[in-house]
Specification:
This protein is an alpha+beta fold. Helices cover 38% and strands 31% of the residues. It has a single domain, classed as 2-Layer Sandwich (Alpha-Beta Plaits), CATH 3.30.70.1350. Helix 1 packs antiparallel against helix 2.
Length: 114
């Protein structure tokens, strides 16, 4: 499938089993690399608001890692690692990362984050 984005042609790869398995493995590697700050990384495939294939990462972090100064560095490093490990450009996927602390999740009780 080909999309036009900002005047350029963009090739969008389908969400194949191979792609999903590669993303699963990449998320596991990044999660392990950033333990103990990261509790877990979940992800889902969907289209973004422009209709482009994308991956949405939900990253649950320890409360201590959720302090603003620490979270800024952690989030930048984790997002870069996910993009590199998951090879999202090669898979034609946009990347969106959302971070939440354990305390926030305990309060919100969002099933999508469990």
């Amino acid at each position: 499938m080909v999309f036009r984005y900002n005047g350029s042609m963009v090739l969008a790869a389908p969400y194949t089993r191979k792609t999903r398995a590669a993303i699963d493995d990449a998320a596991s590697r990044v999660e392990a690399a950033y333990t103990p700050d990261i509790i877990r990384i979940r992800h889902r495939f969907s289209e973004d608001s422009n209709g482009f294939p994308s991956i949405y990462f939900q990253i649950l972090v320890r409360d201590e890692a959720g302090q603003l100064d620490r979270l800024m560095t952690l989030s930048r490093n984790v997002e870069d690692a996910l993009v590199e490990e998951a090879q999202t450009d090669e898979h034609g996927l946009g990347v969106y990362c959302y971070f939440r602390t354990v305390s926030e999740q305990r309060e919100l009780r969002d099933p999508a984050w469990e």
